[in-house]
Amino acid sequence: MKYLRMSWLMLDKFNREINYLRISVTDRCNLRCTYCMPSEGIPKKKHMDIISYEDIIKIVRSAVEIGINKIRITGGEPLVRKDIISLIKGIKSVPGVKELVITTNGVLLEKMAEDLKRAGIDRINISLDTLDEKKYKELVRVGEISHVLKGIEKVIEAGFTGTKINMVLIPGFNDNEIEDMKKFCKSKGLSLQRINHYSLHDINSINRKYEAERPLKCSVCNRIRLTSEGKLKPCLFSDIEIPLDKDDPERSLRQAVLSKPRHGSMNNTSGNWEIGG
Ligand code: SAM
Ligand code: SF4
């Protein structure tokens, strides 16, 4: 037997416990971050090519069966997908989901923070790489920092705890802002999650110049991913994709866990916006 399933424990071939599923609910985004998307955006996919809410819920139910207990909703920008609140409520109602979290660029939080709280989101990660209005605009190409800052206030008002600010560290661009960002987070009761910039095409591109919490080291990786097209990705830095068997999602999920490579290498098949980072 190539995997070990002891009630709520799923180990991969290298003895890593896999308990975390990241779901990219859309490839669309209301920003165009230079490190993530082309400036012109990405070709629009047909609705039928994007995974349905019904299928996502099915996968979550099966994921819990194989030992997944943490789910992250990501994207593209998850808050632009229509009726995202109903999906969140649906995932939250699946027994065995212990932690339901979301990563967002924050632009729509001003309007949606309270709804997210009511729907059952446990924690939010908000991506904000700079506090400088001009640099923000330069980085995201479209969009205003004021929306994100107001969104952060709404998240605090809504009573969320454990909120993180995701800051991608870009040499020569925002690396001089780490201390300011730490102070900002401290003043708001948030924590800072520093992410070393990378290109998906080469794991060795991860800029290790700075101390950072992400990307995770392969040896402690505990996650698999579901893309917005409904493929399972065992590793961010790999071309391996497991097509979803809609009649037996549990089998596909197990296959994804067992296909996790010991180390990532390169991913030339999907963009960050499809996998969710
Ligand atoms: N749109 C949402 C957001 O930006 O928070 C969720 C999706 S985004 C792909 C998820 C995370 O991946 C964000 O924190 C983003 O900063 C990070 N990310 C995207 N491209 C990256 C890159 N090339 N290097 C490091 N982090 C990256
Ligand atoms: Fe959109 Fe997030 Fe990618 Fe920025 S990092 S372009 S906000 S998906």
Give an account of the 3D structure:
By secondary structure, the protein is an alpha/beta fold. The protein has one domain: TIM Barrel. The chain has 8 helices and 11 strands. The strands form 2 sheets. The protein has a 9-stranded mixed sheet. Strand 7 (164-169), helix 6 and strand 8 (191-196) form a beta-alpha-beta unit. The two termini are 31 Å apart. Bound molecules: S-adenosylmethionine and iron/sulfur cluster (SF4). Iron/sulfur cluster binds next to helix 8.
In total, the number of domains comes to 1
Q: Which geometry do the CA atoms define?
A: globular
Strand tally is: 11
CATH class: Alpha Beta
Query: What is the CATH homologous superfamily assignment?
Result: Aldolase class I
Mean of pLDDT: 95
Provide the succession of SSEs. EEEHEHEHEHHEHEEEEHH
Strand content: 15-25%
What is the rounded Rg?
Answer: 18 Å
Runs in which pLDDT lies below 50 for 5 or more consecutive residues are none
Structural class: alpha/beta
Specify the CATH architecture: Alpha-Beta Barrel
Total helical elements: 8
Query: Which ligands occur here?
Result: S-adenosylmethionine, iron/sulfur cluster
Terminal CA distance reads 31 Å
Portion of residues within helices: 25-40%
Strand order of the largest sheet: 8-7-6-5-4-3-9-10-11
How is the main sheet built?
Answer: 9 strands, mixed
CATH topology: TIM Barrel
